[in-house]
Every structure is written in structure tokens, then in C-alpha cells.
Amino acid sequence: MFKLAVYLKPYRKEVILGPLFKLLEAILELLLPTIVALIVNHGIGERDSGYVYRMGGLMVLMALLGFGASMVCQYYAARASQGFGTLLRNKLFRHISSLSYAEVDTFGTPSLINRLTNDVNQLQLAVAMLIRLVIRAPFICIGAIIMSLFLDWRLALILLAATPVFGVILYLIIAKSAPLYRSYQQKLDRLGKVLSENLTGLRVIRAFAESRREQRRFRESSEDLTETAVRVGRISALLSPVTTLVVNAAIIAILWAGGGRIDHGDLSQGEIIAFINYVTQILLALVVVSNLVIIFTKASSSAARVGELLATEPSIQGSAENDAFVTQNQSRNQNQIRSSNEAIGVEKTDTPAIVFDDVSFAYSATGDPALRHISVAIRRGETIGVIGSTGSGKTTLANLIPRFYEVTEGRVQVDGTDVRDYTLEELRGRIGIVPQKALLFTGTIAENIAFGRPDATIEEIRAAAEAAQAAEFIAKLPEGLDTQVARGGQNLSGGQKQRLTIARALALQPQILILDDSSSALDFATDAALRQALRAYSRDLTVLLISQRVSSVRQSDRIIVMDDGRIDGIGSHEELLHSSAVYREICDSQLSGEEVQA
Q1: 501 and 586: one domain?
Q2: How far is the C-alpha of 79 from the C-alpha of 379, rounded, in Å?
């Protein structure tokens, strides 16, 4: 938790002054029982009503002053805790945004959301309690014991004897509950995962009539979480009554011993009343401490989870910090690049748009490679089709170009420079990507198309929509480009969403366009019109067209056939029919004999 204290630096004043005001309130509270003793002994005992009124007025004044100090502390605590939570939440969001696909896959989306919301809320509460009660509660306990020592040190020994008993109880509760709180957070992540999958896949679940099974799965996860919560709740619930039992036992002992001392004249009635008041203050403070133990045990687990996330470094970082550095890297690596290009059949004078130089990749260090020894060069302005069976490595190949994942072996080059020598912003600014899942954001259609270039003109937005074959259906909408897109594009069909995501990529005016099975929801006529429009959109645009449909890639300049993470063949449709058995098999499964030869 102490590592996260850096986010309290802007609120140093609140963190320092807040506890001081609370300390002032605690001092005034500790003085009240002594004043009560004076009133009983001198005012009531000597029948001096004026003394009673004067001391009573002083008590009212002290109470008002304590109330004011408490309100100031509350204000500082709220300001510091909310500001701390805001800074930490923003830092976490920026850090999550910087993580690569590999780290996001490791944590999982539900866990990241819980860390960003629930865990930060727990830490906010801990900060508020830190300012309001962490100093006050122990000070009340210690101060009450000291004040009781001044009243009668023999009776105070009873309180001192009860202190180690309370310490043992506190230790046992923390030791038992802390692991359960960590387990609770993990099970909360698991429940969030089940809930996310059910809400996202609601239509699929209903289509397969599996609602009952998913309800049972959610119930099992929820009951598992509930069981852990009940266990930790039972342990935590013991703290307050056991503390009360110990303190009340001490009160009984004090009354028994004090009664005898009053009979012998060694202790006044006012002093025993003050003594009981101090014990009551200790009891209330210990109840607060017991609640603080629960809060900080939760916060400790949350802090560990947040710290784990912040300590995770992105596995992919841009090494270049400016254009000049990129230029230096381009010159420094030119000889190596040219020699590797020659090895894979590229002329020295022709710097390709994309080069895969003996690239291998695995999603984990212990897993099987998803790609094995891929070597291919793609020229500028070339349209390359990538085809293969499910799991052959098509999407993985495309994800290495914008460095969504880091290559295990070999290297990927864009415009003659290793992708690791670009800043991520510059590299990805050169590449327009249309993923398999068409994802749109809330806002207007125009805002979605201009997502990558907010400064794009309306003419550029319209040109991108025209090339993506989206202009026709946009024109039919009542508000055209100003039509609002529902969350996730729920008010649009699958084909409309795919065309808008293609328009979004084209509006970026990229040098490289990656279409990852992004026309699967389009009819054949629209798909053909799209491919023709892409050729006319920009002659220098390098297109990587990933698909499982032969009809989508057969007109490409070249086709890369993937099979089990390897390249089975490269060439035109006609060439691959003779050279690649895998491609021939795909064609035979999708096309008739006449269509294959057409």
C-alpha cells in the first residue's frame, strides 16, 4: 500500500491537517470525563450550582469546538480520498491502455475492470479512514489509559492487562481473514468473467437454448463467491463482540475493585464515573479499530492487485522517440535489410512495404509456435490475399505488423525499417486495421469513420465511406452521417458495421490496409465492388486481405496460403492451383470445377 502513497502527494495538506484536526477533537473528548469528575466532586458534592453551570458551559463549548474540528477533518478526508482515487484510476487506465495484447490476455478483461473500479474504491475508503480514524482511535485508547493512570494507577492496571488480550484477538482475525479477502477478489474476477461472457453472448446462448446451463454456471460462481464472503464475514464479525466482551469484562473488574476503594475512601465517586467513561471511550475506539482492521485488510488485498497491474511492464514498447531517431535506424539497418531482402527475392532498389524475415511466433514461452519461419516480402501498392483453414495463423501473421504481439524469432519490417525501431504511434499511424469483429463506438457515423483522424474533413469522410461501399446505406438513413450509433453498433446490421469499420480504416489514409476477414457479412456483389473500389482508392495502398473465402482473394496480385503456421504457397490463383495442394483443396470445397478454372 505504501507504494501507492505517491498518489497522495498533491493532497499533502489534507493528509497532514486532517488528522491534526481529528487529534484536536480526540483531545477535547478525553478531557470531558475529567470535567465530569470535577462537576460530581466539587459542583454536586459541594452543592455549588454556579460551578456546575460554568463547567457545563465549558463542556458545551468543547463539544462545539470538537464538532467543528471533526467537520474540517471530514472535508479534508473526502477531498484527499476522492482525489487519490481519481489520480490512481486515471493512472491505471493509462497503464492498461499501454499494455500489449499479451498482458491484457493474461489478466483478462473482467479482472482489469474489477481492479480499476472495485479495488480503487476499496483504496479510496482506506485513505478516508486513514485521515479520519487511524490516528484518532489509537490516540483515544492510549490517551484514555494515560488519563486513567492519573486517576488511579491500580485500576488502570486492569486496562493494561486487557491490552495484550485484544492484540492477540486482532492478530488472529487478520491472519484468518487476509487470505480469504484475496480469494474473494479472485472469485469476484471469475464471476465478472462469467457475467461478461453471458451478456456478450446472450444471443448465442438463446439461439442454442442454453439459458438454464448458463444460469447454473452463474449460480455456481455466485454461490462460490457468497461462500467465501460468508466465511470472511463470520471471522470479521467476531472482532467486535469479542472486543466488547474483553472490555466489558474489564469494566466489571474495575467496578468490583473500585467499589471497594470507594468504601475505604481511597477513590471518589466522580473519579470512578470518569474511569468508567474512559473505559467506554476505549471500548468505542476498539470497535472503530476492529472496523479499521477489516477495511485495511481488504485494502491491502486491493493494493496488492493494483500494484501487480502497475508493476506489469508492457512487453511491446516503441524504442524510437522521434522521427530523427527512426531515420538513423533506417540508415543504420539498410545494409542488413537489403541483404535479407535479397535472400527472399526482393530487388535491391525496391524497398518493400512489408517484409517477414524468418519470423516465428508463439503466444507463450511454453506453447507451440503459432507461426514457423515465415519469410515473404510484400511490395508497395500490392494486394495480397491470405487464406488458410481456421487456426492456420492468418490473423496472427497480421497482428505482428502493427506490433500487437512481439515476434519470437526473426523480424518484421515496414517500409524498410524494423517495426521495433518505430514509435508505436508512428507505426500504427501508417496502418489501417479492420479486425474480424466489427466494433463501433457510441456517437455519430461521421465520428466513427473519423475515429483515427478527428481532423478529417467531411469530404474525406464521404470518400472513405464511398470506397467502403457504405455511402449508399448511409444516404438512406434519416440523418445520414449524423445518425447516432448505438453501443457496439446494435442499431446496424453486420454488413453495415463491417463497411463502417473499413471506412474508418480508410479515413486514416494509411499506407498499409489490413482487412482481417472483414467482408464475411457482405454479399458477393458488395464484396467484389469493395475490392474494386480499394484498387481505385489509392494506387500506393498496400492491402493485406485475410479471408477464408476463395472468391474474396482470388483476384489479389498474390495469395499467401497458410497451413498450420507455415506458408504452404505464394502466387496467383492459377499458379497455386498447380503448386499448392492445400489451396486446391480449399478451392474444391468452395467452388465448382468450372469456377475453379474460371
Answers
A1: no
A2: 58
What is the Cα–Cα distance from 46 to 553, expressed in whole angstroms? Answer: 106
Is the same domain home to 494 and 515? no
Pairwise CA distance, residues 161 & 181, whole Å: 31
Q: Which residues of the chain have pLDDT under 70?
A: 1, 265, 318-350, 366, 521, 538, 593-598
What is the residue-wise DSSP string for 317-379? Answer: -----SHHHHHHHHHHHHHHHHHHHHHTT--TT---SEEEEEEEE-SSTTSPPSEEEEEEEE-
Q: Which residues contact 411 (CB under 8 A, 6 or more apart)?
A: 357, 358, 359, 418, 419, 420
Rounded Cα–Cα distance for residues 580 and 97 (Å): 41
DSSP state letters, 332-349: HHHHHHHHHHHHTT--TT
In 3D space, the residue among 341, 324, 343, 347 whose CA is nearest the CA of residue 413 turns out to be 341
Q: Is 41 helix (H, G, I), strand (E, B) or coil?
A: helix
Please report whether residue 208 resides in a domain. Answer: yes
Question: Grid cell 492451383 — which residue?
Answer: 577
Domain-embedded: residue 30: yes
Rounded Cα distance, 153 and 155, in Å:
6
Question: Residue 325 has what pLDDT?
Answer: 41
CB atoms < 10 A from the CB of 234, how many?
12
Instruction: Quickly count: other Cβ atoms within 10 Å of residue 14's Cβ.
Output: 22
Query: Both 128 and 203 in a single domain?
Result: yes
What pLDDT does residue 204 have?
Answer: 76
Q: How is residue 6 annotated by DSSP?
A: G
Residue 473 belongs to some domain of the structure: yes
Looking at the structure, tell me whether residues 89 and 18 fall in a common domain.
yes
Among 260, 283, 311, the domain boundary falls at 311
Q: Which DSSP symbol is given to 118?
A: I
Decide: residue 464, CB within 10 A, 0-12 exposed, 13-18 middle, 19+ buried: buried
Residue type present at position 579: S
97 and 185, same domain (yes or no): yes
Which residue range forms the structural domain that includes residue 459?
Answer: 438-509
3 state DSSP class of 101: helix
**Strands 409-414 and 417-418, sheet pairing:** antiparallel
Burial of 504 (0-12, 13-18, 19+ CB in 10 A): buried
Q: Which amino acid is at 148?
A: S
Best CA proximity match to 370, nearest among 393, 342, 343, 347: 393
Query: What is the rounded CA–CA span in Å between residue 203 and residue 209?
Result: 10
48-78 per-position pLDDT tens digit: 788 888 888 988 999 999 899 999 999 999 9
Q: Within 13 A of 253's CA, how many CA atoms are on the CB side?
A: 16
State residue 328's pLDDT score. Answer: 46
The pTM (predicted TM-score) of the whole model is 0.69
